[in-house]
Amino acid sequence: xxxxxxxxxxxxxxxxxxxxxxxxxxxxxxxxxxxxxxxxxxxxxxxxxxxxxxxxxxxxxxxxxxxxxxxxxxxxxxxxxxxxxxxxxxxxxxxxxxxxxxxxxxxxxxxxxxxxxxxxxxxxxxxxxxxxxxxxxxxxxxxxxxxxxxxxxxxxxxxxxxxxxxxxxxxxxxxxxxxxxxxxxxxxxxxxxxxxxxxxxxxxxxxxxxxxxxxxxxxxxxxxxxxxxxxxxxxxxxxxxxxxxxxxxxxxxxxxxxxxxxxxxxxxxxxxxxxxxxxxxxxxxxxxxxxxxxxxxxxxxxxxxxxxxxxxxxxxxxxxxxxxxxxxxxxxxxxxxxx
Length: 339
Ligand SMILES: Nc1ncnc2c1ncn2[C@@H]1O[C@H](COP(=O)(O)OP(=O)(O)OP(=O)(O)O)[C@@H](O)[C@H]1O
Ligand SMILES: [Mg+2]
Known about the structure:
The protein is of the alpha/beta class. It has twelve helices and 14 strands. It is elongated. Bound molecules: adenosine-5'-triphosphate and magnesium ion. The site of magnesium ion (MG) has 4 residues, from helix 2.
């Protein structure tokens, strides 16, 4: 296929995207303030960040639509500043705002883009039909895009970015405003593209989306990278899980809390007894700690009626690292897990 003979990484680093020290100012606003990131070939990098963090600016620079003030970026082995034309031919872009031609039908939009990408007529037609089908637009294919709903336009926009089977695909908040069914279609299609060898840089404010699709996450805020890693890595950084234990006899709760607190178990910081709930909460970082705490209590003769664990959600992680909220209310978000 086209993609393979382009040798996306230039055979050097295994990264389809490499960004170093990227800076972009708009007047006094530092949209990007020295961003470094890599996207490994064939993977999805999730770029998370609150409004105004710099996500769209990053995508625009990587698409050669905006020039950085400083720093460098390579995409599929091409330099954004020195090889913009080659670079543009290897990427697909779905912007935060749909960019379809409203006067043309869905099918005409896709066909036209296929032709602009130098696909032969027959292939442009068949690729257009294939993508219309995949995004449930076959019935609406002949209607002008003007008459499409917001979700249909977004789907058409996504289909357009996939026409040329790009080696690297940028999706800037691709599912904002989509209903759950459409969102699932977009996710399926994105996964299919990755299975076929594409690399995806996905910006999103939906933690569920990041969790489902991205193998690595980079969190940016005010133009700077403030955290990066796998989903579980970020969760662990924010403080691991909370173990919940309910004594069979509520009167034993204080004694249980003392036993854990004074146990000297490796890495067990504290135990909090919440009498209103008849529950003991113990922050843990590993399964070994979980086993150790439960083992200790049972050795000391405490009878336990319930055990559960609560993992912070990615939402909580995000709020914690962007500094907007840290606490997890133990009584509002219990995820029971039998152990
Ligand atoms: N063309 C522009 N002119 C002036 N300021 C801009 C321009 N584009 C972006 N900015 C500013 O740069 C900062 C980063 O904007 P950007 O659009 O990259 O954020 P974002 O992370 O995509 O936000 P959102 O989640 O709202 O889409 C913001 O403060 C924004 O106001
Ligand atoms: Mg944006």
